[in-house]
Amino acid sequence: MNAPFPILSPAPQAQRDDHVTPSIIRFENVGKAYAARRGSPEVAALKGVDLDVPEGAILGVIGRSGAGKSTLIRLVNGLERATSGRIVVDGTDITALSEPGLRAARRSIGMIFQHFNLLARRTAFENVALPLEIAGVSAREIKARVEPLLDLVGLADKRDRYPAELSGGQKQRVGIARALATRPRVLLSDEATSALDPETTNQILTLLRKVNADLKLTVLLITHEMSVIKAVADRVAVLDEGRIVEEGPTYDLFARPQHPTTRSFISAVAGSDLPPYVAARLSKTPVPGGETLVRITFTGGHATDPVLSRLSRLLGVDVNIIQAQVDEIAGRPFGVIVVGIPNDPATVAAILSAVETLHLSAEVLGHV
Question: Which of 80, 163, 225, 306 is least enclosed by beta carbons within 10 angstroms?
Fold first, then answer.
């Protein structure tokens, strides 16, 4: 399929947003609390969430278990109801819709699930066709839509297979095709790759990128894996204990994480963790005759510059490489290197100043 297919007839809208905005999904001071057992207080899953999802972007929401990720994404299509605030999707205030209105609005909001949610007694073709049958689409139109979708997700030859005959990755591809059947403006991904092996995960993420690019589809995905964010997301929001603690372009958050939760996620994939034998010796105060450890972050066009050799020549300082990694984040080069330099305040200050002149960032981690 070479071109985006047209949208279904617009769903009934209970309340149009009057503000012109590039965001197709907007959370405005959204809270969600669950009733607890008798005698216990309510459990607040989300607390005052403000979040904008730009049209056409892939925005990833990452957080630990219990952070409120699943609640957040289920609020978008009304599977959960917000306790406070409002959620605007493509100009429609989802929080103001009745149940019939929600059912209609969901035609423009596709969703893929962690465990696929396919019907065992329906073939791949029939699973993809299901939402169209429910919407009353004719058999001829269903065939015209479903076959190109199966081709898009690489399953044209599996149209008559049942879920039990498909691999995990193939089941998820069926789930993606089904989510696209009603020609949505927004695609929600609820931990869609966490049940898959790494190779299959990469294939599914590549497919999501293709869907985003070819169909101009906005994707909101939740995950607990920073590697997923790194591979596919344009922007990332970090959710911690029901609050958005940091949000921005993926590359910027990797390069300059501000919140401890963000740093902990990034360290798992960006080579930011020190080797255990070094971390065990790390001290906040200088060690006589020891070294100061400095983390240098290489970004953008400077990610592959020979910085260490320049520093050595410029300052006449021996630099000990403790750890190094060069990667790609959101399609741009990104490097992290931890070096040990002589434990001298003047030398450390000179190194930090020199790094800054090279338009890179540096951080003193401690002393060994």
Answer: 306
* Mean pLDDT on 283-294: 87
- Residues 90-142 pLDDT 10s: 999 999 999 889 888 888 999 998 888 999 999 999 999 999 999 899 999 99
- 128: its two tokens: 């993809």
- Pick the more confident residue, 302 or 210: 210
Predicted local distance difference test score (pLDDT) of residue 7: 31
Choose among 162, 149, 81: nearest CA to 112. Answer: 149
User: Are residues 348 and 294 in contact, defined by beta-carbon separation less than 8 angstroms?
Assistant: yes
Rounded distance, CA 329 to CA 345, Å? Answer: 33
Residue 124, Cα to own-chain centre: how many angstroms?
27
Neighbours of 22 (CB within 10 A): 10
DSSP state of 283: B
Q: Work out the widest C-alpha separation in the chain, in whole angstroms.
A: 80
**Distance from C-alpha of 354 to C-alpha of 156, rounded to nearest angstrom:** 57
Task: Compute the distance between CA of residue 236 and CA of residue 66 in angstroms, rounded to an integer.
Answer: 18
The tokens for 242 are 């029901």
Pick from 253, 215, 259, 262: nearest CA to 233: 253
* SS3 state of residue 158: helix
Cα 107 to Cα 241: distance, rounded to the nearest angstrom:
31
Angstrom CA distances, 109 to 150, 186, 283, stand at 19, 5, 51
Examine the pLDDT at 14 and tell me if it is beyond 50.
no
**Angle of CA points 357, 271, 204, to nearest 5°:** 115
Q: 194 in helix, strand or coil?
A: coil
Least confident window among 143-157, 241-255, 267-281, 346-360: 267-281
Distance CA 214, CA 364 (A): 44
Q: Which two tokens stand for residue 269?
A: 């994939």
Separation between Cα atoms, residue 143 and residue 27, nearest integer Å: 37
Read off the amino acid at residue 331: G
Q: Are 221 and 189 in contact (CB under 8 A)?
A: yes
Distance in angstroms (rounded) separating the CA atoms of residues 159 and 151 = 9
